[in-house]
């Protein structure tokens, strides 16, 4: 799941140089594929209906989901997404509720209702902002 979170939070394909143990040479990058997949996954996390038809999966003989995107370094990401959906972990992958952040994170809260990627930063900023707004309205 960490592979998916890292992929969703990658801002520039040139910084996307490692996935698991496989080094990705810069000339092997297909920025369009990465951007398309990242956009579709973020849309899914926002409650939308993403188009993932460009990222096919197949079931191999050993009953394992295998991606066949035509971009070998992207296959592990697609496979991780598929496994997380199948196991129910996808429900815990979220986008930060802070409008100026929207960082992807894996929600480890007990009830699965975490809203912020980091309570000390985004959560605290939100709570401080709403507290100040309430005081200003009251005062």
Question: Describe it for me?
Answer:
This protein has 139 residues and is an alpha+beta fold. It contains four helices and six strands; from the N terminus they run H-E-E-H-E-E-H-E-E-H. It has helices at 2-8, 31-45, 75-87, 119-138; strands spanning 18-19, 22-23, 57-59, 65-67, 93-95, 104-106. A two-stranded antiparallel sheet has the order 1-2. A two-stranded antiparallel ribbon has the order 3-4. The longest helix is centred in the C-terminal third of the chain and has 20 residues, at 119-138. It is elongated, with a radius of gyration of 18 Å. The N and C termini lie far apart (46 Å).
Largest sheet: 2 strands, antiparallel
The backbone outline, from C-alpha atoms, is: elongated
User: What sequence of helices (H) and strands (E) makes up the elements?
Assistant: HEEHEEHEEH
Mean pLDDT: 82
Radius of gyration: 18 Å
The total beta strand count reads 6
What is the terminal separation in angstroms?
A: 46 Å
Which residues form runs of ≥5 with pLDDT under 50? 13-29
Strand arrangement across the biggest beta sheet: 1-2
């Amino acid at each position: 799941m960490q592979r998916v979170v890292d992929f969703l939070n990658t801002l520039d394909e040139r910084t996307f140089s490692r996935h698991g143990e496989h080094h990705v040479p810069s000339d092997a990058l297909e920025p369009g594929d990465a951007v398309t997949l990242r956009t579709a996954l973020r849309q899914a996390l926002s409650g939308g209906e993403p188009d993932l038809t460009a990222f096919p999966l197949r079931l191999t003989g050993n009953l394992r989901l295998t991606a066949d995107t035509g971009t070998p370094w992207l296959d592990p990401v697609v496979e991780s997404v598929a496994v997380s959906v199948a196991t129910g972990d996808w429900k815990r992958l979220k986008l930060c509720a802070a409008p100026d952040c929207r960082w992807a994170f894996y929600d480890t809260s007990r009830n699965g209702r975490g809203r912020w990627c980091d309570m000390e930063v985004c959560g605290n900023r939100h709570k401080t902002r709403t507290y100040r707004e309430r005081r200003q309205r009251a005062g």
